[in-house]
Structure formats: C-alpha cells, structure tokens
Specification:
globular; twelve-stranded mixed sheet; binds magnesium ion; binds 2,5-dioxopentanoic acid; 7 helices
C-alpha cells in the first residue's frame, strides 16, 4: 500500500491511499489519527490505513496536488554507502580523500542531519542550488521511514541535494553543502514496508532533463549498497531518540561525472521500484 499527502482546494492537507491513477482519501475525522505520521506509528499501519480508506470518494490523481509525505519527523542521511559515492568524494576532495575511503569500510557509518520538515520539497516543488555553489548535484536515495521506536514502517524516494564544490573545499563544510532551504526532496508517497519488492531487486534510476533533453541518465540498485538498512537504523538510534520519527536517506549510488552541475530550469526525475517517481524542478535564487 502507498500512502500520500495532498493539498485540498481550501489549502488544507489530507492523507490518501495511492491506487494506480486514483487517490482514495483516508477519513481522519474520528480523531484517533491526526496525520500520516500517526498512522505510520501504528504497529500495523496497513491495517490502520485500510480501515480509514474511503473508497467511494476517489480523486483522479492528475487533479491532486501531492505534497511531501512528512509531518514533524527529522530527516537524516547516510553517506558513502556505495562504492560510487566513495570514489566521487575522493575525487572532489584532495585534502580529505582518506576520510571517505575509511568511512566506506569502517563499522561506524557516516550519518548526518539533513533537514527539518520546512527544508523539504515534495513532488513538483522546486529544489535549490545554493547561490554560492557552482557545482551542485542531486543524490537519488532510497529513504527509510521510521517510527518513533525506529521501526521501519515504509520507504520513500529522497533527493539529497549536495554542493560538491563546498564539500570538496573542506569536509568541515559538509553541513553547508548539504543543509539549506529546499535542499531535500521527498515523495511522491510512502510505500508501506511489507509492500516493497525484495530489497536486493530494487533499482534506483535518475534522469535529469534540460530544455526537454536528457542531460544525465544513471541507475544503480539497492544490492550495490555496502550496508544493510538495519545496520544504518541501529547506528542512527545509538544515543539518539526520535519522538516524532525520522526519515533516513541511505546514500547515493549514482553520481554524475565531475563535469556535470545542475542548472536552474533542470528537471530531476528519480524512480525507485515499488515506490514511483519523484520529479522536481531546480532553481537558484
Ligand atoms: O560524505 C558526504 C556525503 C555523502 C553522501 O551524501 C552520500 O554518499 O550519499
Ligand atoms: Mg547523499
């Protein structure tokens, strides 16, 4: 089952089940569940959503405005979990190449805070290139949706926008390379954990279009990840609590060649098996 948030014509945000090209509203009027996050907190979110779904009021998906499927969760990210990310980082950072090499094979992963909900863009919403960056790329990442107990309730698509020039100057600039307004894409929906294909079969694809032409295409698969999801969740939960739950982006296995930088007007499309496609336009202002 896929759950999404969408904006009603009166501006309010509602929750629905994505069913092919239809959106079936969830009736939250009884008050037990106030948000998508409340449903994801349940031991069995599928059963809860199934009980709430209103099959008689289907909305044509083309007419619905989806928003990012986040409420008050923090967004965290793992880094250098694929060989491709390790080699790209070592290329971009002369001074700190060995940091990336060592973290790829160390038991402790790289984990960093990525965004609070207000820095997240949903489907169709712009993602930004910082005005002080000339070399920013999107990072397509399968993203874990975790309850406050850090149980894995679902998956979504994440885009961990990264200013490679800023990170490459000095690894201590990582928070500035990674965290700024509209630095993080999430959506278009959350696929509940039990409804995903077998994890080692999941493909991740990215296509970047400029004035209608594909200027970058790449793909990888979850099987290429150097760390299991459970390992990343275990490290995230060490010494840390998440009263509102968390999203955990699991790292990129697709990095465009060093001569590629995003430009305003680009359209970034990321597709992940079992979830769908997240498309965002790029701005720089
Ligand atoms: O070490 C920098 C960040 C790495 C990252 O975001 C990734 O591998 O996806
Ligand atoms: Mg990343």
């Amino acid at each position: 089952m896929k759950l999404a948030k969408y904006r009603l014509p009166n501006g309010e945000v509602a929750v629905g089940q994505l069913d092919e090209d239809r959106l079936l509203p969830l009736d939250l009027s009884a008050g037990q569940f106030k948000s998508l996050a409340d449903i994801l907190e349940e031991e069995n979110p599928l059963e809860a959503a199934d009980f709430l779904v209103d099959r008689r009021s289907a909305i044509d998906l083309d007419t619905a405005t989806l928003v990012a499927p986040i409420d008050r969760q923090e967004v965290w990210a793992a880094g250098v979990t694929y060989r491709r990310s390790q080699s790209a980082r070592m290329e971009e950072s002369e001074s700190a190449a060995s940091c990336y090499d060592r973290v790829y094979s160390s038991p402790r992963p790289e984990l960093f805070f990525k965004a609070a909900a207000h820095r997240v863009s949903g489907p169709g919403q712009p993602l930004r290139v910082r005005t002080d960056s000339k070399w920013t790329v999107p990072e397509p990442e399968i993203t874990l949706v975790l309850s406050s107990h850090l149980t894995l309730s679902g998956f979504t698509i994440g885009n961990d926008m990264s200013a490679r020039d800023i990170e490459g100057q000095n690894p201590l600039y990582l928070p500035q390379a990674k965290i700024y307004d509209a630095c993080c894409g999430l959506g278009p929906c959350i696929t509940l954990a039990g409804k995903m294909p077998p994890h080692d079969t999941i493909e991740i694809r990215m296509i970047i279009r400029r004035a209608g032409d594909a200027v970058f295409e790449g793909k990888t698969s979850v099987a290429q990840m150097a760390r299991p999801f459970g390992d990343l969740i275990g490290w995230l939960g060490r010494e840390n609590s998440f009263p509102n739950g968390a999203f955990l982006m699991t790292g990129t296995g697709i990095v465009p060649d060093a001569d590629f930088a995003l430009e305003p007007g680009d359209l970034v499309g990321i597709s992940i098996d079992g979830i769908g496609t997240l498309v965002n336009p790029v701005i720089k202002d």
